Amino acid sequence: MEASEHKVTEVVEKNVVTVATQQQPSDKKSNIIQVSSNKRPLYFYVNLAKRHMQNYNEVELSALGMAIGTVVTVAEILKNNGLATEKKIQMSTVGMKDQAKGGKLVRKAKIEITLGKSEGFDKIVSPKKKDQNKIEMEAPNHVEVNA
Question: Which residues form the DNA/RNA-binding protein Alba-like domain (predicted)?
Fold first, then answer.
């Protein structure tokens, strides 16, 4: 996997520091999902990861601090459902300025989990879409109820 350059932006809002990374323009599209512990429901990230794997064949789930548990749960759901295989897990700490503590540098835990498509991914994901379209097309426009 090629190393990519990222531009890191820090935003301080209501005593919480949020770090957002933006990939610098390059030929390779981004397959990174940055997970928050409280912004979106768990299955939002599960479904988003499935879509990324369809497009890129692999996805990198990334989180800081309290969101690490959410990333691990998303990865386990995908693995246990036979959709993904674990390629790489990387853990580190990052330094961030916390304005609530007077601009003091604080360390936060970071995890990056790279998942790839499982061998049965296309068989599991694709037929469901075809079946849903077929059911929608065969469904009657009205329902009669005999009392």
Answer: 31-91
Task: Let me know if residue 60 belongs to a domain.
Answer: yes
Taking Cα atoms as reference points, which of 39, 20, 4 lies closest to residue 114? 4
Nearest residue to 125 via CA among 81, 72, 85, 87: 81
DSSP 15: T
User: Minimal CA–CA distance to 33: which of 7, 65, 67?
Assistant: 67
**CATH number of the domain to which 129 belongs:** 3.30.110.20
Helix (H) or strand (E) holding 52: helix 42-56
In a domain, 62, yes or no: yes
Q: Among 113, 115, 60, which residue's Cα sits nearest to residue 82?
A: 115
Which pair of structure tokens corresponds to residue 101? 């503590």
One digit per residue, pLDDT tens: the chain, 147 residues?
444 444 444 444 433 444 444 444 444 458 899 998 788 889 999 999 999 999 899 999 999 999 999 999 999 999 999 999 999 999 999 998 887 878 888 899 999 999 999 998 888 887 544 444 444 444 444 444 554
Print the domain residue range for 89: 6-138
| Assessment of whether the complete model's pTM goes beyond 0.85 | no
